[in-house]
Amino acid sequence: MASKHKLNFIDSELEKIRKNNLYRELRYGKASKSHIIIGRKKLLNLCSNDYLGIPVTKIKIDQLQSSSRLVSGNDESYNKLESILARHKSQQNSLIYPTGYMANLGTISSIANKGDLILSDELNHASIIESCKLSDAKIIIYKHNDMQDLQKKLKQKGRNKFVITEGVFSMDGDFSFLKEITEISQKTNAVTIVDDAHGDFVVGKDGKGTPNYFNVAKKIDLYISSLSKGLGSFGGYIASQNNVIDLCINKSKSFIYTSALPSFLIHHAKIRIHSDREKQKKKLEKNTNQLSSGLKEIGYEINSKTQIVPIIIGDEKKAMDFGKFLFTNGVFVQPIRFPTVPKNQARLRISVTAWLTKSDIDYALEIFEKGFTKFL
Ligand SMILES: Cc1ncc(COP(=O)(O)O)c(C=O)c1O
Known about the structure:
39% of the residues lie in helices and 18% in strands. It has helices spanning 9-19, 76-88, 100-111, 126-134, 147-153, 178-188, 210-213, 242-251, 253-256, 263-273, 277-298, 316-328, 358-375, and strands at residues 29-32, 35-38, 41-45, 93-97, 117-121, 138-142, 161-166, 191-195, 222-226, 236-240, 308-314, 331-332, 335-336, 346-351. Helix 7 links the parallel strand 8 and strand 9 (222-226). The termini are far apart. The model has no long low-confidence stretch (mean pLDDT 96).
């Protein structure tokens, strides 16, 4: 066994993280509809990604197959869910990964190669950034939603070109400019990839996602998404044409060299997809309007049009203090800091869910009003 002192260098790294107010700690909570119980405290939960708040789904847990899908960890239920997801995205086929993170890691690194060019929005999620690094392609970051910058940078040479963006940006709640992006991509023959983890099941007709909302679904070449957010289930998937799926089955390391998502989760996702999502979607829209307009009335600057409503604080310590104030007053919002967002852009990322009632939101607004005078 390695002697302990060899790892003492880690202490100085942790100390640096603490000094910069960027230290993270695990909390242990139990979700209970619109609330979360942390320790003995019951708090209003304003940081869950279970946006649609579909009522609890009871499932039977069978014997786990505990193997990669290419070995013995596959059964018919995967195929059925993949057909449903392919139809949901109007694509030829889909492929389920254990998580959305792994879907990103495995897909982009499989399809982009040496000599190719990837154009990636500067605010793209960590899993997209990592996946681009795993490919041998040249990576170019374009300014957030800046179409002139994208157009200019797409002029660089590349055998195959890819433009990758989120649909709804996870930390700002804004939409990507998909109409413009798909037009630019078409002109330059670039492949358009959308990670719609936060728009899927939540926006567009029948929750088909952000490209559907902007009426450009037909122009998307490859979708990457998560079952763990709007749907409130678990897992990740991609949807595209058959050859992309085939290549990922053959080449994607985060698909091949890992155990399959347990099939009880496949059943869980399937039940949720067939639930009354429209009713939950309407409720979510109503809740988002109530919270966003209430915050604006108090004086907060709110630019988001989606269920992700960030309040930008800037200073990391101030964001942490605001978070503690909310916690003390029974509202749970996790402050988000670097490296999840740029330095000095710390924020309270509120996520609205359909679980919330009108009086829950009234209560949250009352506390945010007190916080406004205290912190802003
Ligand atoms: C944009 C985006 N893509 C992918 C993921 C990863 O999804 P999952 O939680 O299913 O791994 C996230 C998670 O936060 C995300 O925000």
